[in-house]
Specification:
With 190 residues, the chain is an alpha/beta fold. The protein has helices at 2-40, 42-45, 47-58, 62-65, 82-98, 115-120, 148-160; strands spanning 72-77, 103-108, 125-126, 128-132, 138-143, 168-170, 174-175. It has 2 domains: 1-40; 47-175, Glutaredoxin (3-Layer(aba) Sandwich), CATH 3.40.30.10. α3 crosses α5 (82-98).
Length: 190
């Protein structure tokens, strides 16, 4: 009996290191799978943020857009804006669908370069989408989260005919944050 109990104790002691090794291996394997998945599917997980960062690069220069006799889709956005991130895939789809017939201009409100446009179009909430006819007349202003169908119908109306300004259509939006990086002070030399 003593030999049997002693054999069982020896077996259980020898299994503990094997279990510890197996659990460590499983944990390392799990972490590796998670990291590889994040790397492989990063565009899927971070698509909205990636789209917002690419908007500035994909933008038509506003000076060209307002003089080339095509309707213009002008969006004011910021990379930190949650509503902008949420709408980014829809806006990107509009661009893909209509970019042959309509100028797409994207202006980041955190870039001081666009301050004159931010003032000119009274941007105080983002995203703000302004739609202009081919003569450069403002036809629609959308502030905040908007229904895709409403924007699509407005874009189609731009292509059909010139129409007078329809007013501002508000939705859920982000208030523009003060950009302290570019703030001027007596000591800023700027």
């Amino acid at each position: 009996m003593f030999l049997v109990i002693n054999a069982l104790i020896v077996q259980s002691e020898s299994r503990e290191p094997i279990l510890k090794k197996n659990s460590k291996t499983i944990l390392i394997l799990f972490i590796a799978i998670v990291i590889i998945s994040l790397l492989l599917f990063r565009n899927l997980f971070f698509k909205s943020t990636y789209l917002l960062k690419s908007f500035g690069e994909l933008s038509v220069d506003p000076e060209i857009a307002f003089t080339n006799k095509k309707p213009t889709f002008l969006e004011f956005y910021a990379e930190w804006c949650e509503v902008c991130k949420e709408m980014a895939p829809k806006v990107s789809a509009f661009k893909d669908e209509y970019e042959k017939d309509i100028n797409f201009v994207f202006l980041n409100v955190d870039n001081q370069k666009w301050g004159n446009y931010i003032s000119k179009f009274s941007v105080n909430g983002i995203p703000q989408i302004n739609l202009f006819d081919k003569k450069g007349n403002l036809v629609y202003t959308f502030i905040g989260k908007q229904d895709e169908i409403k924007i699509r119908e407005s874009i189609k109306n731009l292509e059909k005919k010139d129409k007078p300004y329809d007013g501002i259509i508000n939705g859920k939006f982000s208030i523009i944050q003060e950009n302290k990086n570019n703030a001027l002070s007596p000591r800023s030399h700027g």
